Every structure is written in structure tokens, then in C-alpha cells.
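3.2 Worked example (two chains)
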Amino acid sequence: MTTAYIVDDQPLVRAGIGMLLSGETDIEVIGEAASADEALREVRRLRPDVVLMDIRMPGMDGVTATRELVADAEADRLIRVLVMTTFDDEDVVIEALQAGASGYLLKHASPTEIADAVRRVASGDTWLDATAATRLVDKLRPRGCDPTDITALLTPREQEVLRMVAAGLSNTDIRDCLVLSEATVKTHVARILLKTGSRDRAAAVALAYRSGFVRPEDPVPS
């Protein structure tokens, strides 16, 4: 069962999304909050699989809240945040993704899309609204950054995971080497694909070799 927590300052939005998700047999809404401050306290206590976070709220905004939640459990279990917005505000969405959000969802998305997004993010994947995915990947790259400059695109942990993927290690192998949960490894891989604009692991590995980030003679990470 996937557990979800909803954060939005509008009661009708919380009620609508809560009702929609509660109709899914494999998703349980275990709480909701009208502010980011309240959400931080409750999410840390309840530990839901996915937090659906409104970006713009009075007081603390959704980006700041996302950054704090993701920082809480980097080593053991990443807290997965799916940010929600009612408008196409790319810059704020990018801030949320850079803060560690696992996906971006429009509030007017179809019921099927919302439920699927929660499932995908809970499993460690990334979810982006299809109409904005290409633009977001381009804008996620630092300004003036060569798209093959891996060290500018990825965090140190993501670089470490990419080296292991390039060496042929499976998610299970990486989990054991880094002492992480397999879902956390999967989330790191998903973020690597997102930030590099790679369609799959093979494309990310090809980019890593093509850019010189890894070389055939490099020792296998352990």
C-alpha cells in the first residue's frame, strides 16, 4: 500500500485530491496540511511514501519545505515529494526539482495521471508533466553549462551512482555498496536521467563515456 500526504492551502483542492486518491485500492491518504510548517511536523512523524506539495502557499513555500524534507533522510530513505501547481511556472518548478522533488504535476491533471504519478514517484521514478518535460530538462542545466559536463549537472552522490551504473553494477549492487535502500538508489538513477536528459540507463552511460566522465580503464567502484 502506498501512503500519501497532501499539502495545499486550499481546502477544496485537498479534499478533491484526497477523494480521488482514496478511491484507489493501492493508495492511502494518511494526512493533509494547509501549510508547509504544519506539513513538516506531520510528515516527519507519519513518514508517508509520497508528499503532494503545493508550490505557492502563504508562509513557507513548497520549494523550501521540499528542500527540508528531502534533506531529512538522504542516507537511509529519501522522502519523495511530488510538487503541484495550477499554472505553467517553469522557474518555480525547476527550483522544486533542484531542491529534491521527484516530480511535477498540474492540479488539473486527470485522475488517472495523478494516481499514476503517485505510484511512480513512490517506486523511485521521476514524474514530469509530459507537455513541459523537454523544456524543463533544458532549463535544469546550469546556465552556460555544457550538457556533457557531468560534474556541473549532478550532485556528488549522483556522480558516484552514475560511475557505478557505468561500471555495470545493478541497483542491488549499488544498494549494497553504498548502504542505501534499493528505492533510494532508483531515485538517484531517475534524477540522473532527468538532469542529463537521458532516456534510459544506457543513454546515461553513453553520455558518461562520451564526455570523459568515466573511462574504460577506470577501476570498478566498490
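3.2.1 Second chain
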Amino acid sequence: MRRALPPLNALRAFEAAARLGSFKAAANELGVTHGAVSQQVRLLEDWLRTKAFERHNRRVVLTPAARAYLAEIGPALDRIAAATACYGHDEGAVLRINAPASFALRWLVPRLAAFRTRHPGTQVRLETSNQPLEALAAPYDIVIRGGPDRFYGVAARPFLSEERLPVCSPGLLDRVPVRCPEDLGRHTLLHSASLPRLWDDWLAAAGIPGLQPAAALTLDHFYLTLQAALDGIGLAMGPTALIADDLAQGRLVAPFPGPRLPARAYCAYVREGKAVDEPVASFLAWLLEQGEPVGAR
């Protein structure tokens, strides 16, 4: 028979908040934000169709039904942990990282081999997501997002600045030269569905807001847009942090020195107190070494 089981992350958030009597303390234990714990508890309450907590100032108090539920699932989670310890294997230090897919593919993954060579005892687990920090349910040691933004109990470490400007393959310019911004009217402009106004903003900054390109192509991920530019399909709005290697090696060229659109810096978000852990501290130091701090341009 199929078991009617609630989401495991919701159970873990509920059990931690119930045991500690605080969403904040539960967030610190699980390595997530206060908002993520609240979201998971609401998910469990919706699944159970009953209220689990009564809020009293900064503390939360279990309802009688939730107290009985905790008495059952608490030992069950303990047994799962004990069984995992018996049958699992020691992988050494595990560093859990969450980053946007385009950043991971274009910047982080090509550099990870260097980090692993320097820290062979640290196992890196990388997941990609564009979810807001407060919506992430799984516990991550480091979350990479734009910023810096402020979150309760979380420190932001900017490590890489970014701007955006038109780029394309050298072969495309050989076929159809671009000598001034108006020449873009002879080309295909590549758009990313996640940032649909980049070209409009750049054309306005260049003083030609009404320009109509020969064609337009929209792709659902930024890294697909950049790949289309590399393949000579058209011109893309290139994020300088993610195309630096391509520009340096001549795979992409920037027809114009400017204007450059400002963009948010890449930041490493770490729960307060977690940054002193050796694997986390080592990765943060490595990010700062590999990146370009804000204001360095």
C-alpha cells in the first residue's frame, strides 16, 4: 500500500520548531532562513488540515493535537537518523551550495576543479535554483544570489561584480559588420525570458530606443542565450562576470565599449555562525580570490 506521508522537509521544520519552541532557533539548526521554516510549517498545516502552533510574541506553542503528533514523529525521525548513521558512509566534509543555473554553468563549475585540488577532503554538492533565499527549503551552507540583500540571521558576502553589454561571435561580425549601434538593425537580437527588458534598456541607454532588429529570438535561460551568441545566431546582452573567459579567449567580442548596464553583484549568503566552519570559510575565501569585488572596475 502507498504510504500517506507528508513532505519530509516540512516534517523536519515542524519537529525542530516544536522541539526548540522557536522558528528562529529551528532555522539556525537546519541552516535555512526563518521564512523557509515558516513556509514549511504552513505546508504541513495545510497537508494535515489543522493548525500546529499558536504564536505568542517570539515563541510558538504547540496545539494539543500537534503535541501528540510530535510525540509520534520525533522518535520516528530519531530512528531514521540512527539507521542512516549505521548504513551510511563517511564522505568527509560536505559543502552544500545553491546557485543560479547560468552562474553555475558559466562561472562556478569551470572553476570547481581548482577548489577541489586545493581542498581534496571537501565534497561539494551543488544544486541550481533561482528561488528567493527565503523560499529555499533544503539546508544549504552557502547560497549564491544577487545582492547584497539583507535577511535575518544571514550574512551577505559580495564577491563578484557584473555589468551587461552586447556581445556576439567574431564570425557574425565578419559576415555582417557592426560599426555603430544603428547597425544592430541588421542583426538578430537574442533575449532571455528571465530578463526580457535588457535589450530595451540598452537601446534606450545608447540613444536608439526605437530601433527594430532584423529578427528577435527569445530563450528561456540566460545560458542558452549566451550559447546562441557563441554559435553565431545573433547578439546577446552578455553579463561580464559570466563571459569574461569567452572575451579573453576571443570566443565572444563586444562590438561597443558602452554603454554598460549596471547589474547586482553576486553574493554568498551564509547563516550567521556558519562562516567559521572550516569548509565554508575555505570556500568563501576561494570565492573572494576567484571573483572581482564590487567597485574593483
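3.3 Remarks
The mean pLDDT is 88.
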